[in-house]
Amino acid sequence: MTMLALACLAQAALLTVAAWSLPVLARPTLPFGVRVPAARVTDPAITAQRRRYSRAVVTLGVLAALVSAAAVIRGTPGVLTATAVLLGAADIALYATAHRAIHAAKRHGNWYADTRQAITADTTWRTHPVRPPWPLLIPSLALLTGTAAIGLARYGSLPDTLAALRGLGVDVHHRVATTPVTAFAPVLSQTAITILAPLLVAVIVRARPETDAEHPASSARRYRVYVRGIATLLLAGVACANLTLLLLGLQQWDLLTPSPLTTAATWAPMAAVVAAFLIFGVRVGEAGHRLPAQPGESGSGYVQRDDDRYWHLAGTVYINRHDPAILVHQRVGSRWTLNLGNPVAWTVLAVLASLALLQLLGIIDLPSTS
């Protein structure tokens, strides 16, 4: 019961920290997903929404932790999932409320009046692109090869049933039939990650860079550092994920006994990845905005064009038919999103939806650790 209570408290804490950090790590000119001129980043309307949002998120997190702990003590664990879902929904609602409030203040105050709006393009992005550190894939490939070799050597002597994989753990009380798919699930997951992550990196380094019309040279340099850092973390994260999957495979194949120490070792690589992303986000910031400016660069006299009309759902969905870009940097978090105004984006979504539907119908069986 003690471990379950601690897990519930950790769950509430993680959700709360994630929600609280969104506006803290965001670019100053994009508070809660709203584009504002640099001269308005300290406007009272924005600072008030930041304070109100932070207080509400922390308060809800404390309440969720108390409710979760009470549910464990009273023996009603079914409440835990509902509490987590409600906490996440409430945090999203708070963020959307702050977004609407700042957008209304911007519109009523006509913040872009008397400003010279512009956009900039980094032409060196094509001539001198960011080169990902591909050698970081060597440990991932070595782990994948080693896991596959161990699995092949062990497959012939496996029992009729195997312990089920549950997230980043092994459920010894729930068994599944031994088949090539269940037995090699860790290897299949490693293969998928090792293929998809480099493809994602290749797409990210070719996506349109985020530059600021007010400081074009500095923003272009910062974004290069930012993208290379993201690529490094993603490629290193593949090795960490493959190490976790190797440890899961060893437990499922009865080569490693599940225990608290084993569980901690299994979680450690992914915890290191999360910590690395958090440190990177704090030090570099979204699109590299926390990095120092280029020495000697003065303001251009322009401000970044107000493009709020193309962004929806609090800066998470981008729709612009006149923009040829397929992938653009999202306004919320260090993530990229598809331009839903581009037909190619809908083709990608259709392929993903088809795969999901085929799996639901049982026609194909995609790798899974759940």
Automatic annotation (TrEMBL):
What organism does this protein naturally occur in? Thermocatellispora tengchongensis
**UniProtKB keywords:** Membrane, Transmembrane, Transmembrane helix
Identify this protein by name: Putative membrane protein
Specify whether Transmembrane is a keyword of the entry: yes
Query: Transmembrane region positions?
Result: 53-73, 79-98, 136-156, 183-205, 225-249, 261-282, 344-364
